[in-house]
Amino acid sequence: MPPRIRTHVDTRSDLYASNRAAMLSALAQLDELTAQMAGGGGTSDPAKNARTVARHRSRGKLLPRERIKLLLDPGSAFLELSPLAGWGSADSIGAGMVTGIGTVSGVEVMISANDPTVKGGSQSPISVHKALRAMDIARENRLPLISLTESGGADLTKQVDVFNPGGATFKNLSRLSAAGIPTITLVFGSSTAGGAYIPGMSDYIVLQKDAARVYLGGPPLVKMAIDEDADEESLGGAEMHARTSGLADYLAIDEPDAIRIGREIVAHLNWTKQGPGPVSPPRLPLYDAEELLGIASADIKIAFEAREVLARVLDASEFDEFKPLYGSTLVTGWGRINGYPVGVLANNGILFSQEAHKGAQFIQLCNRMAVPILFFQNVTGFMVGTRYEQGGIIKDGAKLINAVSNCGVPMITVMMGASYGAGNYGMAGRAYDPRFIFSWPNHRIAVMGPKQLAGVLSIVARQKTEAAGQVFDEVAFAPIRDAFEQQVEGESTALFATGRLWDDGIIDPRDTRTALTLALSAVHSAPIKGTESFGVFRM
Amino acid sequence: MTNGAPITRILVANRGEIASRVFRTARSLGIATVAVYSDADADSAHVRAADRAVHLPGFTSTETYLDAELILAAAVAAGADAIHPGYGFLSENPAFARAVQAAGLTWIGPTPQSIEAMAWKVEAKQIAENAGVPLVPGAQLPDGISESEQQNICDAVGFPLLIKASAGGGGKGMRVVLGRDDLITSLQSARREAMSAFGDDTVFVERYLTGARHVEVQVFGDTHGNVVHLFERECSIQRRHQKIIEEAPSPGVTEAVRERLFTAAVGLARAIDYVGAGTVEFMVFGTGADQEFYFLEMNTRLQVEHPVTEEITGQDLVAWQILVAQGQVLPRTQDEIFAAGHAIEARLYAEDPANGDLPATGSIHKFTGNGRSAAGQTLRIESGVGDGSVISPYYDPMLAKVISHAPSRQVAAAVLADGLARMTLHGPVTNRDSLVAILRHEAFVAGDTKTTFLDEHPQVRTPLTNPHERQRHAIAVAFALEALANPEALVPIGWSNVPAAPQFFTMRARAAAEFTNVFIGYSRGGVKVNIAESELVPFRDVFALEAAVIEDVDARTEVLDDSHAIVTVRIGSVSARCSIARYGDEIFVDDGVINSAWILAPRFADHSADAIGHGPATTMPGTITAVEVVPGDAVVVGQTLVMLEAMKMEHRIISDVDGIVLQVFVEVGQSVDAHLVVVELEESADATESS
Question: Domain span at residue B665?
């Protein structure tokens, strides 16, 4: 039996209490934002949102999360992705889309739904980004994709930023289909112009009677282009597409009927997951996940023990540690989550050469045995300084980044504290294509810490001034430095990051095991295979 | 005549619980057993309980259990040397008794002469009168007399009166007529039912006296001239003249009248040299010194309710029957028969007391009378059904008799009510709740039991409805459904990282017209449960329902297998363990105190239902016995269109509009399913305008 992690957390300490208070306060803020976003309407004015939603309902229409609830099997979990995409931008929080993974007719699927109460479901650059991310996840993990479509098409005010990336939507649909991953589109309303290719490129199309409108050009455009007077039904009505054009495979009576048909299509897919699945029965950790709130540092300058996190995430808190005596700031080893075997890399501080060696070796081992890897990031970067540069920290860091870059087994990343500099890269940050990447609310991400960054800026400014033979005015520069530090601080937060889709969503630390289970289950929809071909490991 | 010869193998010309009951005693006496069964009963418990079984092809009683020739052939084929007729069917058919004896078999029952003497009720009354037993005023209705003559005879008897089938019993062919207006149609209907049940449509009338107790005396005679009584039973709680609760002794008979009843009953039995088990029925009026009684009839068979007598006397009446049929002397003399304690029997029927006792058909998924009350007292259960039994429309829908025996009446009633409430009864609707309500009713407990009990206390006919408990059960069902759908969930059920729309389940309590929508929302703070009653709405409207918040709810679910779960539902400070069993769309909840049955609404609407037509339709499967309209007829609201016989009862299918008959879709003799539209009507224009 693998060794069990023993906890050393003092739940009565002041640090624990202050961490917990800070985390709860951050979570409360998140809850407020997600509740506002999930309520629909898309603005910050609750009264206006309520009116929009009421108008939508008065047409007998469901909200996107209601459509999804009906589509999912009763009791199915739903892992919503990028829920706060668009935070901090001019766009609505959530970007008028709901994407996520749930179970439909016993099959884990990716669902991508427009929220027609948010700007009529029109697509901003962030909406496109979010939709494309969902498609990537569907493709990499072989998840059938169900689109619940009701959209006014591209947000024309932002067409400059939508036109090119938006085109990839249709290409991706086609490539999913080519990869044998079914694509199903249920159309509840408008899906016109470019939007018409969402159903157009799908394997299965369900159109709702008297509601779906699917055409390249509507009556005004047709009038302008060829001087034809045409009504909407003749151009793109559901009945027309079901009986005449053949675009629709199924004609639905109403929204629930469309959803019923969607469920039946999935039931008939004869879909099987290609991964090996769990290897043992699930066992709960020995320690309460609630304690993660007091463990994770609110002030990321204060280190915390990664094993304490693992003890609250892994099955039975069992962790078979690899190289425990070598490279102590990177914890590596094997464990299980609800029976799914995983390799774990978790930071216990800054990365040195030993840690880079250890991590690169461990990743190779996981690839050999075809075990997915979990990265728990809390890293301020690789060590700097003469001693380390001369010791070859670049060569060693490169080994870790090489291993991560070419890793064949799925990687899933949790950013649970700091994620600075090349440490982010070496620990499977967003740019390294982890299958899923989640962050905790206390997480900070940047090229380096705000204070360091501002300090560097200050030093560079002083050097520049003094090189010009002038005297550097420390006092006059202070406000500039502080402002910059604050700007970086603001741009390093978990919310800022999630708003830009640097992660797939902020999760409550207590939900880490659940989110990882759902991610691992999704990952196991595709075959799990390691690679044999890494880049040249610089020796 | 071979009565008197030793019996080695008994064929029971019956079905259900009584067949099983006779087999049990036969086995205890070292006698082998033979069952007969119709097509509908091929998988019945009584068939499995016998050593040999013989198939009687067909479904209806007439084709099978009432076909004397077939049954005799079965006895010969299976090597039976005796026939026990049970009750009902051929049990009081003298021709059959004679045929049995003529075939060289032992007839376990009274002599054909005795049966005959008591079968013709008018003649039976004459014999009773001669024996000095007081009679209720009544009259015969000879064949072939005119309607006005019939009316005159009935006027002389006086209203209200009761029409009875001369050949019958068990409430078949029986009608209460309150006044002259209903007389002729009631007579026609009674005759039709009598003909169908007994093959004889002769009826008679007698004064309908209300406020009586139904008290009967169990008598037994042997071929050596001995006649004894085994005390009385009271069977006043009746619905549609059929007993549903019987007890011994009677709580309302004075000691003086009791002795007179015994004397009268034994005297009547002696007058006809009675052999075997018989029951002399009386109506008892008044209290104290004013108490009086009238002779009603004598049943020349073992009664359904014989177990209460067995319980208080400790005797096996079926064993007595078999011993007497072999020519033996009665096992006990009168001086050796004692009564101890109080016994009550409840008849569990597949029928809906809240809906005119409409019989129910369908599969019994689970039937576990474990025979114990909560306190561990043993209940006796005589059952003809088990898990998987099918209640067919062809026979009486009695599922079981449940009998308690205790030192006092009060305890016997309480134990029986508790035992019934705790029985696992998953299947068609039953009268269980009604039985429990009766047994717990203060008037019943006080012994204030008259034949009008159910009319006076109609509340015992409706299901036990406690809205709070019903909500608790609905919540339990919702949690169970969710858990059953996710038996291998690795993550919390309904989990989402973002506030999601609530999970909802739409279901209907079996007795309710409204649907119950249960919404479950999950958050880290616990579950949030809302409930809304509604018409069956398209699901897009479900999320917009105004749903009441159920405050302070918690539910813990333990999945037992793919269709069973235990859900402990706490609402406020009180929690209850609800056992949930699912069979397709039917869900049953048992919590030890209250039981409920639910029909799960489909998750998605079936749009093909839009194509189904509307109009007067059959309420259950059965046979069309009369078609009273032809195309072109004008009909009014409430007018009978078609008569349906089902579950041995007649049902009228009436018009719900004033209008014209356009088409008739059925004919007499046709077997029909439930929900078949029988007639197409066009509502008349003026009726539409006025409505």
Answer: 611-690
